[in-house]
Amino acid sequence: xxxxxxxxxxxxxxxLSTRINPPRVSVDNTSCNDSTLVKVDSMNKPxxxxxxxxxxxDLDLIITKAYISxxxxxxxxxxxxxxxxxxxxxxxxTIDYIEKALGPKSQEEVxxxxxxxxxxxxxxxxxxxELIGKDRPGLLSEISAVLANLHFNVVAAEVxxxxxxxxxxxxxNDDTTSRAVADPTRLSIMEDQLKNILRGCENxxxxxxxxxxxxxxxxxxxxxxxxxxxxxxxxxxxxxxDCPPSLKPKITVERCxxxxxxxVTVRCKDRAKLMFDIVCTLTDMQYVVFHATIxxxxxxxxxxxxxxxxDGCVLDTEGEKERVIKCLEAAIRRRVSEGLSLExxxxxxxxxxxxxxxxxxxxxxxxxxxxxxTIGEQATNVFYVRxxxxxxxxxxxxxxxxxxxxxxxxxxxxxxxxSSREPEARGWAKTSFFFGNLLERFLA
Length: 444
What we know:
30% of the residues lie in helices and 32% in strands. Strands 1-2-4-3-13-14-12-11 form an eight-stranded antiparallel β-sheet. An eight-stranded antiparallel β-sheet has the order 9-6-8-7-16-17-15-18, sandwiched between helices. The longest helix has 17 residues, at 318-334. Strand 13 (287-297) and strand 14 (300-309) form a beta hairpin. It contains 13 helices and 18 strands. The chain folds into three domains: 13-112, ACT domain (Alpha-Beta Plaits, 2-Layer Sandwich), CATH 3.30.70.260; 117-232 and 338-443, 2-Layer Sandwich (Alpha-Beta Plaits); 244-334, Alpha-Beta Plaits, CATH 3.30.70. By secondary structure, it is an alpha+beta fold.
């Protein structure tokens, strides 16, 4: 029997192709009156669209329009972007970073920039803890108390809740040495206590705690955790029952017979990082985006994606289409927080997060999303809160909060827009907490 000889593929071939045809990136401030154009031309590769969108959103830029084409071996994108105030990007450092991060020297020159990545290796002297479980009022307070009692200091955290589930990534170090804790016994005790908290009184076995060793983008990791937890299944939670129709995403999946694509159309209220959340979800569901058109019309966003599965197939069954629709709806809602946002600034100290979350719990407030960061000696905590029963927060509670914590920290209260008719087209963008470049700030 003759031996079968497979052709040899040089592992450096892909790098050679990139060197021969390096990515071309241009930042154009002259072609459009109201936005900056970021143009990217490069060799096509799996996940490249998500990489580009991730760079732009980590800079807290707003993508107002985008045109994507990656059919065949070449990837061509044009993004219309603005800053948080709706102005062009004129900061030289930001422009330089975009060109380096997306250009031919992205791997070697941008490696020094801190990124939103989960894992011990990426955050130096900190440990990243992942937690997922059933949400309940006061859970974040209990988690914070456990960490404080075990002498762990929370340096940064990102917390999302959706459909009665909670996912969070928490960065901690030793409260005395400010270094990562390597003692396996101490880490095991912390893991066991956090698991007990997540299980709660109902003994929810779905509650999980792990120490992350990967290098996944934090926002993407939170999407992955909730997706794996199947948060897209189940009925509408109590806090979403009264959601105005204008805020509910309208998603359709149709077939483009001529070109052999499935066409996913998303229409919903515009907000920051909307495109990232959608592209992230499609990518993690093993779909490839070949063409896309993104546009914002006032407070509304319209996004159209021409996709196929990684194996080249389109979405043929109604079950597949329904699953994509549900998963995209969940991805859009995870980052949306209606109601009040509380921004608290104070000098960092051990147990600060535990103290703040305890006060919120004692005043009957449930946290739907949270961001915690520490820059030098300054700690900034942002909480999106609602009444534990799902009702609007009473102004008397806010005044009580001001009296209780006003002497130790600054408190800023913002109301997130409840109607798409708000004059601020990107209200969520202006009031949202941004985790972007967080690791760069607290590692500096």
